[in-house]
Amino acid sequence: MQFNGCGPREGAGTISSTGQPPTIDRQILALAVPALGALVAEPLFVLVDSAVVGHLGTASLAGLALASSVLLTVVGLCVFLAYATTASVARRLGAGDAPGAMQTGVDGMWLAAGLGLVLAVALWWAAPWVVGALGADDEIAQQAVTYLRWSAPGLVGMLLVLAATGALRGLQDTRTPLGVAVTGAVVNSVLNVALVYGLHLGIAGSGAGTAITQLGMAAALVTVVVRGARAAGASLRPARAGIGASARHGAPLLARTATLRAAILLTTWVATGLGAVTLAGHQVVSSVWGLAAFALDALAIAAQALVGHALGADDVPRTRAVLRRTLQWGVGAGVVLGLVLGGAAALYAPLFTSDDEVARAIVVGMLVAGLCMPVAGWVFVLDGVLIGAGDGRFLAWAGLVTLVVYVPVALAVRAWAPPGAAGLAWLTLGFSGVFMLARALTTGYRARGTSWMVTGA
């Protein structure tokens, strides 16, 4: 089944070039490897902006740090546009309803466009208040507000990229988003240099360059989905019922994401209270953890698409097989990442700091994080499986439960842990150990049952 370059590529139920159905392992890799590339390409936007703006001065770089935190939080909360669309499109495709699958993708993009427009206007208007609430001084605040306002129009593009990427993942096409993400990263680099230094726009040029790039990426991905929708005979008009259904499916995932963001912010708050060494070490440990999360999230994306397709096709045995195999991949990847990132911490810690105390804290924190990485692999994959099954309501409640479990642990670390390396070790154990274990137990208990395996379109 192929929709002008927009359909599945050796997906579930298709025949490979050898004439045999592809194995689950091959399907996982075919989806996960390009997805990983796209996930890694996206952070390059922030790195390029930081490198370009950093040469404008300390105030500009600090302003970018504040503005990027706000922008990434807004976009992060809207990741449900990708996850919910992936699950819905995959389920309909598995049920043999190609027009319905494409219609779901179109409805998701209309929701993203409307939400992006509202958020862009709100961010432009509220930028001074939001930055002021973060406590920045006048010069830094001015730089942050400038970046937010120039980048705000790009929110429409960012959310459309999420929705269109979700639709393509549901169609088991992760290569197209990879190509667009890599191209976007290159274009963003060129535009930032040209606008910031060529036209002397300063930090405003960086914000504008990112916005233009995101809108261009959205146009490319939307064009691919629209082409597939036309080929399948789906309507391109906004349908109130379809957009409402996309919003309802996404609301529980929004709640789930909010609990995760709350846990991350709480962890940063605890690190701040434990002193400069702990906070500096935590910044590096959390960044390295985030890098590992990309690899594990790529497996979760594969699980979303394959589980949604299998359930849509009323194939419960295949759903169980995908669950079992993706869990094996997730835990195995967690073991490898834990050994590499934890075992090599003493080698890369000096790259981030010349302070011996901070470097020691990084090494200790990464050793703890490395030990917990297999649990994270289990958690990420099960998240993907349950999202692919459309079990967002359970994930929302599970997120709340795990946050309630984690809060007293985090507060205890803040109150009783010593500063420095020991404090970071306890904090890392609280987040990557207790918090992740709570998530593993809740999602694992759910996956053992059958109530999440609702079949059909």
TrEMBL record:
Superkingdom of origin: Bacteria
PANTHER family listed in its UniProt record: PROTEIN DETOXIFICATION 44, CHLOROPLASTIC, PROTEIN DETOXIFICATION 44, CHLOROPLASTIC-RELATED
Subcellular location: Cell membrane
Protein name, entry field: MATE family efflux transporter
Classification via InterPro entries: DinF-like, MATE_fam, MdtK-like
Chain segments annotated as coiled-coil in the UniProt record: none
Keyword terms: Cell membrane, Membrane, Transmembrane, Transmembrane helix, Transport
Membrane-crossing segments per the record: 28-48, 60-84, 105-127, 147-168, 180-199, 211-229, 262-282, 288-308, 329-349, 361-382, 394-417, 423-441
Protein family (similarity comment): Belongs to the multi antimicrobial extrusion (MATE) (TC 2.A.66.1) family.
